[in-house]
Design goal:
Layout: E1 4-17, H1 20-23, H2 38-44, E2 51-53, E3 56-59, H3 64-67, H4 70-75, H5 86-89, E4 93-96, E5 102-104, E6 112-122, E7 125-138, H6 140-152, E8 156-158, E9 161-164, H7 166-181, E10 191-206, H8 219-230, H9 236-244, E11 249-254, E12 257-262, E13 266-271, H10 273-277, H11 281-306, H12 315-334, H13 338-346, H14 348-353
Parallel strand pairs: 10-13
Antiparallel strand pairs: 1-7, 1-10, 2-3, 3-4, 4-6, 5-8, 6-7, 8-9, 11-12, 12-13
C-alpha cells in the first residue's frame, strides 16, 4: 500500500472483574463505598464536576467532558423501568492518577507519541486504558512494527522506570486502584477477564481512498491492513485462511469507511470519507466511542461469565445479571452504530446472553 500515516490513535485496555466486594462491602474503603451501594452510586454520578478521592481525580457521566462521548450518552439513556438507572447500567466513573506516569517509545525517528492513561471504575471492577496518539510519517510496515512493539516489547517507561512492557503499565495502574479501593489489597479480589484489547484508528494519512473489498483491493494490500491490527505481517496464505474461516468481523460504514474486528485482539478503524467531506471531527470521536463500547461490552460479558456459578448467591448479583441481560438486549437500539449491532450479534459470549 502506498500510504503515509500522519496521525494514528491506539486505545488499548484490559478488563478486571471483581465479585467479592459485592458479596462483602466491608472489603471496600469507606470513601469508595458508593461503588457497592446502588443509591450512593447513582448520587455520585450526579456530580457535575471532577472530584478527588484518594489518589484519583474522578469524573462522572454528568461532567461536560464525558457528556461529549456519544456512546456513554446513548447507553445512559436506556431505561430500566420508568427511567434510566446508572447502577443497573453500570456506567463507570473515569479516574486519573498522577502517581503513575506512562511513556512509550515508538522506536522510530521523528515520531512523537502522546499517551493518556485512564481507569474506568464501576461496581463490576475496573479497566485500565492507555490512549496513544502517534504523530509521524509512518509507512504501513512502520505501523505494523509499532503495534507489535506496543504489545510485545519493553518499550514503556512507567513511573520513571524504563524498559517496561504494556503489561507492566497496566499492573502499575491497577496497583493504584487496589491500594485505594480495598481495605487490604488482596489479589483474589479481581480477575482479569480481558488481558488486552485495542482500537486502532488511522486519523490522518496521505494516499488515495481505498475500498476494503476483495473485488477491488489486491490481496497483498488486504493482508497489510490485517497485519496492522495483528502487529505482525500476515502471509497471503494466512489472509486466505482468515477470510475463508470467518475469523474476523468486518463492519462497513460506507465504500471507504470500515472497521475490522478480531475479538481476541481488537479493532482497526479506517474512516476515509470524513477526510474527503471535511468532517474531521468524526475521525476523533468515533474511535473513543468504539473503544468505550468495546470496553463496556467486554466488561459485561466478563462479569456474566465469572458469576455463572454465583447467579443466585445474593440478590445484588442476581439483580445485576438480570440488568446486564436487559442492557445487552436494548443497547443496539439505544446506540444504533453498525459496529455496536455487529459486535452484539457476533461476539460468542454476548450473543448467548441476549
Amino acid at each position: 500500500m502506498n500510504y503515509v500515516f500522519k496521525i494514528v490513535d491506539i486505545i488499548v485496555f484490559d478488563v478486571h472483574r471483581s465479585v467479592r466486594p459485592l458479596l462483602d462491602p466491608s472489603l471496600v474503603q469507606p470513601q469508595f463505598q458508593f461503588l457497592v451501594d446502588p443509591a450512593k452510586y447513582i448520587k455520585q454520578h450526579q456530580q457535575d464536576a471532577p472530584f478527588v478521592l484518594g489518589e484519583f481525580t474522578v469524573e462522572s457521566l454528568a461532567t461536560k467532558r464525558l457528556a461529549l462521548n456519544y456512546f456513554w450518552q446513548r447507553c445512559a439513556s436506556i431505561s430500566h423501568g420508568a427511567a434510566p438507572d446508572l447502577w443497573k447500567l453500570q456506567i463507570p466513573f473515569i479516574c486519573q492518577t498522577s502517581k503513575v506516569k506512562v511513556e512509550f517509545s515508538a522506536g522510530l525517528a521523528k515520531t512523537n507519541v502522546l499517551i493518556f492513561p485512564s481507569i474506568y471504575l464501576s461496581a463490576l471492577g475496573w479497566s485500565t486504558s492507555l490512549h496513544l496518539r502517534i504523530f509521524g510519517a509512518l509507512s504501513p510496515n512502520d505501523l505494523i512494527g509499532v503495534v507489535g512493539h506496543l504489545r510485545n516489547d519493553p518499550a514503556f517507561t512507567v513511573a520513571g522506570v524504563a524498559k517496561r512492557t504494556l503489561s507492566d503499565s497496566f499492573i502499575a495502574l491497577s496497583d493504584v486502584v487496589k491500594r485505594n479501593l480495598y481495605v487490604a489489597a488482596n489479589p483474589l479480589y479481581d480477575r482479569v477477564t480481558t488481558p488486552r484489547h485495542s482500537v486502532i484508528s488511522i486519523a490522518k494519512y496521505d494516499g488515495a481512498p481505498a475500498a476494503f473489498d476483495a473485488a477491488v483491493m489486491q490481496a497483498s494490500d488486504r493482508a497489510e491492513i490485517h497485519s496492522i491490527l495483528h502487529g505482525r505481517s500476515l502471509t497471503l496464505a494466512q489472509l486466505t485462511e482468515n477470510e475463508l474461516g470467518n475469523c474476523f468481523l468486518q463492519t462497513q460504514y460506507a465504500a471507504y469507511d470500515f472497521a475490522l474486528t478480531y475479538f481476541e485482539l481488537g479493532s482497526l478503524l479506517w474512516m476515509q470519507s470524513p477526510r474527503q467531506k471535511g468532517k474531521r471531527n468524526s475521525l476523533w470521536c468515533l474511535p473513543s466511542n468504539l473503544a468505550a463500547l468495546s470496553m463496556y461490552l467486554l466488561g459485561l460479558n466478563g462479569f456474566w461469565k465469572i458469576t455463572e456459578l454465583q447467579a443466585t448467591a445474593t440478590q445484588t448479583i442476581k439483580d445485576l445479571r438480570e440488568a446486564i441481560r436487559f442492557t445487552i438486549n436494548q443497547l443496539g437500539d439505544a446506540y444504533s452504530n453498525k459496529f455496536c449491532r455487529a459486535f452484539l450479534r457476533h461476539h460468542n459470549g454476548l450473543s448467548k446472553i441476549a
